[in-house]
Amino acid sequence: MSTSRMRAEIGEQPGALRRTLEGLLPRVGDIADLARETRQVLFIARGSSDNAAVYGRYLVESHAGRLATLAAPSIATTYRRKVDLDGVLAVAISQSGKTEEIVQTMEWAASCGARTVAVTNGHGSPLAEAAEVALLTEAGDELAVPATKTYTTQLAALAVLGLGLGADVDRADLDRVPDEVERLIAATEASPALPEIVGELARVPGAVVSGRGIAFGTALELALKIKEACYLHAMGLSYADLLHGPIAVVDAQTPALLVAADDGPTLPGTIALAERVRSAGAKAFTVGGGAGLAGAGNAALAGPDLPEWVAPLGLIVPGQILVENLARALGLDPDVPRGLNKVTQTD
């Protein structure tokens, strides 16, 4: 079978990340200047961009000490209610910059007193033009419907945003990301665990995908990709929420995919969850988490050798490759999932 466009774009991510970081790291000062007039952050997004926003939220709260929340765009576009957003930095995220709901919600936020930042791959787009500061990613054209390189470059932009907000992290960690993603692509495709996990997922109706903290957005994004490209039921949950009841759905026909950085405070809990899944007679497949998580699961894809705060920029990559392989194993075209378009307009 010929290489899919999705797979080609997965392979373009190291270059896209290099260009994006080169273009955006000099903007840290611009972000800092705008942020001085704010005290909390409101992320505005839908779809994969919303999953990127989850990463942004955890990064800002855990490392920059600012309250961060996810917006409900319907308050602006459907209920049309005003909210006091004085002191708020509104960060709107859209790969195209053309989704009317996101543009309208950012403009609404500004009218409510917020300062505005756009994260978009759409140079010259309505979103980029309307924001006070536009963080333009350099993913290039993305033709496959499932977002890959536009998603990881959004994460890169949000990492730069975190620096501008004063996050207590080592900026030099970002310099390692493109090479690590390049290494990870090759390592994932050579891993004997890849066909094993694909084969197992191809014979079940769905899976639970779980992570926590900074890796939670990765779990949500991987679940979305499984639903979009493979038409399987995939539930993305924080492992804390999973343990509150939905753990009952994990069984012989519903394996768990668990994601984690190789370090950080949520890793022990993810390892314990893998052990609990297996003790219940279900399969636990893991992405990242180092040797500890790999040893607790049935089959493992290695994650990036990156600190937790920046790990999501690489952690989703084995998941992307897994999804592309799974779609083809199911006889599906991962480039053009049914019922989806590259730009989705919502009311």
Automatic annotation (TrEMBL):
SUPFAM superfamilies: SIS domain (SSF53697)
Organism: Actinomadura namibiensis
Protein's name in the database: Glucosamine--fructose-6-phosphate aminotransferase (Isomerizing)
Domain SIS: 31-172, 197-337
One Pfam family here: SIS
GO terms, molecular function: carbohydrate derivative binding; glutamine-fructose-6-phosphate transaminase (isomerizing) activity
Gene Ontology terms: biological process: carbohydrate derivative metabolic process
EC id: 2.6.1.16
InterPro entries: GlmS/AgaS_SIS, GlmS/FrlB_SIS, SIS_dom, SIS_dom_sf
Key words, A-Z: Aminotransferase, Repeat, Transferase
